[in-house]
Amino acid sequence: MNKYLVSIIVPCYNRQGKIEATILSLLNQKLKNFEIIIVDDGSTDETFLNLSKFKKFNNISIFKIKNSERGAARNFGATKAKGLYLNFFDSDDLAKENHIEIAANKIQQLSKPEVFHLSYEHLINEKKIKKFIKEGKLNSNIFKRNILSCNGVFIRSDIFFEEKFCENRDLSGSEDWDLWLRLANKFNFYGFSQI
Fold it and tell me: How far apart are the C-alpha atoms of 94 and 122, rounded to whole Å?
């Protein structure tokens, strides 16, 4: 049985100056039925030491592994997850306060789908934000190019463990698209306009 609705997995490497903002944005969620799993992927700076301030939160787990690249760090975090769904953030991503709330609504609306995606924004510069709205069945678009943001994808945990992220370092930077392609080959991959 799952303890949380969502497990958010955040791999990081030498991100002592960035990851705190990511964690604080996740802790600011309106809906609290989630956990955060931080995987320090062999940082050589003070990242792991700086993360110790978050150990006081019951829904945060922090691990350090030998440097293995993002795919392996994400897969490791998934093995520690207690959520019905897995969601993956990069260590410089920021969550809006409705992130988990919207996901919970979609999970209920679609009766626990295998996978789905929420739209996202990208900060171009201090004054410009670009919105990426991905709506409807996304399978054919996923086959053309990587149109998804990792932090917008929610994967049911039982489905994730059938596929996982590729751990080949030669595919680093494309491990997410590789997973989306494999998932889109098996399941309907729906996108929603909410950010």
Answer: 10
Please identify which residue in the block is written with the tokens 């399941």.
187
User: Please, how many CA atoms are within 13 Å of residue 30, restricted to the half-sphere of its CB?
Assistant: 10
Beta carbons of 84 and 156 less than 8 angstroms apart: yes
Q: Residue 184 phi/psi, 5° resolution?
A: -70, -20
How confident is the model over 69-122, as pLDDT tens digits? Answer: 999 999 999 999 999 999 999 999 999 999 999 999 999 999 999 999 998 776
Q: Is 173 left (phi over 0), alpha (psi -120 to 50) or beta?
A: left
Q: Please give the backbone phi and psi of residue 121, each rounded to the nearest 5 degrees, phi first.
A: -120, 150
Q: What is the pLDDT of residues 29-82, one digit of tens each?
A: 999 999 999 999 999 999 999 999 999 999 999 999 999 999 999 999 999 999
Q: How far is Cα 53 from Cα 50, in angstroms, rounded to an integer? A: 6
> What's the distance, Cα to Cα, between the start and end of the chain in Å?
29
